[in-house]
Design goal:
alpha+beta; 9 helices; about 35% helix; four-stranded antiparallel beta sheet; about 280 residues
Length: about 280
């Protein structure tokens, strides 16, 4: 039995819902039947409970404490390829404040109550007792991981876990954008076309896909900034099509973003640019 599977079973026995991650901290596509579509769990972001698919779903909805699923045939090959173990913090009433660099850690030490901390590759996870909605990039280098997301298991950490403070909840309230009608349509032509040849646009879309795919943290913020850059460069003359948008959405979804998050980020980027 490999190390990751052993860790997963130990955590599951303690009531922690777990799942395997492949290289790049990306979940396995366990359920092709509902991958990135509406299955009642992670894909449509409407319900915080586990997916009701007949097999382990994808992203956070796959996390489970059931040893028969963890060791079953659906995950047999996944554990052989796994690069890490992830867990669903909100599923056990926890919130992880993911601090991605030294400045973010310094901010947390000034502004947040001390709690259990876990070292990460570039920063720290601060773990609080209490669940809340998740959000990425609530400030520079700070993501909130709780309900309907997964976090890497990096060990139990040190220090005494404390109750989730209102200061963290307020970060998400402040960050959340207003709800707007979702559309993927690109604005009609009318601006000056900067695309002397189709190669210019194709290169821009390919670079945007690569930027999203290469993101290792702050994925939601990276997706938004990438959409903003693409629309500001290519979105006013009518050359950008729904097919181009679909390619960017697909790249974002391979990093765990839902179709709704993609559509919201696209809409917010267009609004920011006055489109």
């Amino acid at each position: 039995m490999n190390t990751h599977l052993t860790t997963a079973l130990r955590l599951a026995s303690a009531g922690v819902p777990v799942m395997p991650l492949r290289k790049g901290k990306v979940p396995f596509a366990n359920c092709p039947a509902c991958l990135y579509t509406s299955c009642g769990g992670r894909p449509n972001m409407k319900t915080p409970g586990p997916c009701q698919c007949p097999r382990p779903c994808h992203a956070w909805a796959a996390a489970t404490t059931d040893p028969d699923i963890i060791t079953g045939p659906a995950w047999a090959s996944a554990w052989k390829q796994a690069a890490a173990v992830a867990y669903h913090p909100g599923g056990i009433g926890l919130t992880v404040v993911d601090l991605d660099h030294a400045e973010a850690i310094a901010w947390a030490r000034r502004e947040l109550p001390a709690t259990r901390t876990v070292p990460t590759t570039r920063g720290e996870h601060w773990i609080y007792q209490g669940a809340m909605p998740s959000a990425n990039a609530v400030r520079d280098g700070v993501d909130i991981k709780s309900t309907m997301v997964y976090a890497r298991w990096l060990g139990p950490g040190t220090g005494t876990m404390t109750t989730l403070p209102d200061a963290i909840r307020e970060l998400v309230v402040t960050k959340s954008p207003p709800v707007r009608p979702v559309t993927v349509a690109v604005p009609a032509g009318g601006g000056e076309c900067r695309h002397r040849t189709p190669v210019y646009l194709e290169r821009g879309i390919a670079m945007a896909e690569q930027r999203i795919t290469a993101a290792t943290s702050g994925v939601h913020a990276t997706v938004y900034r990438t959409f903003l850059a693409v629309l500001s460069t290519h979105g006013r003359c009518g050359c950008l099509t729904d097919a181009h948008a679909a390619r960017l959405f697909a790249a974002a979804q391979t990093k765990g973003e839902s179709p709704r998050h993609c559509a919201d980020a696209w809409t917010n980027a267009r609004t920011a640019l006055g489109m």
